Amino acid sequence: MRIILRLIIIALLFESVLWGDGIEKKIPILCYHRFGDSINDSTTIKTSEFAKQLAWLQANNYSVISLDSAIKYLTGQIKTIPDRSVVITADDGHKSIYYEMAPLIKKHRIPVTLFIYPSAISNTNYSMTWEQLRELENTKLFQVESHTYWHPNFKQEKKKLSSDEYEKFVDKQLAGSKQMLEKKMGHEVKYLAWAFGIYDYELITKAVQSGYIAAFTIEKRSAAKSDTLMTLPRSMVVSIYDIEVFKKIVSEDN
Known about the structure:
The protein is an alpha/beta fold. The chain has helices spanning 2-19, 47-59, 67-74, 95-108, 130-138, 154-160, 163-185, 201-210, 243-251; strands at 29-32, 34-36, 44-46, 63-64, 85-92, 112-116, 142-146, 191-193, 214-216, 235-236.
């Protein structure tokens, strides 16, 4: 009997090592905004630099996984993910995502989550259209999620508005955004990116009540199982970062 027990324990230990169940993997979640041939602001990166980043990930055996897969791993719904996993997200819905980012994503066949504030879509000259968003989702590589209704600064709005006005305002930004995106895109919206990375206990409570299962900040570190689901960190990739800085961001915990 003791021999059998020992064999079972050895088998379990071997399975843990083999599948990575016993070793927690941290996940860099990257946050992009705009792309272009030239740098017009701090959140725009050159499309050529983004191409270098994707090529480096591929050459160094990184696996770009979906945000859904990352959440399932962090919550224990799946036991393991590939070594050197990374998630790519892009905020705001700028038209350069469609014209500059998307061709490279299609080339590499990797998943991307787009955090969108719906007030801009089809309404401004800098944003994508609903038709373009649906076209990207039809590739099965892009997933549209919420970035509030019009990207407000909650701290500033809370100072200006009465308690009742602010409560209605928050409902519009969180529940209203979710409902609009679900209506336009035809699927459930589960995730929220905090505008400007601003959140507090009240906002988190409202987000949960609105039906979000996870929310994301812009805290520069990799996501871990110990993180709270409503304040998961993401690392912004901005114009001042060269390829060496990018390598450090994604390899810090890998």
